[in-house]
Amino acid sequence: MTTESGRLPLSARLTAQAWFQLVLAAMVLVVIIGTVAGAQVIAQTNRGADQLLNRSMPAAAEAYRLQSALVDQETGLRGYGITADQQFLQPYRDGTQDEARAVARLRELLADRQPLLDELDAVES
Q: Is the entire prediction scored with pTM above 0.90?
């Protein structure tokens, strides 16, 4: 079982203890690599969850508030248009204030997302 150079192959030169240490070192290396990869996946997941909880979900809630404010304005104008009674303009006035608050908050939450800000501009106009 000698090679051309007259030496024994590595598998024949290693003792049982050396094989055990080699396999153990390989297992430790696999565990370390798995730990690093797992930590990176967890960190990425946490960043995504933070983005969702701190920006996306509040922005969606504000978008619903904006939609409700616009519906209130429409309702007020329709009621006033039909009756010419000033009391029906109250939903319009309330909706205008709610719209301003929702738009301001949306601008804060979407500051780094220009396409969504462009859509918000389109809704406002």
A: no
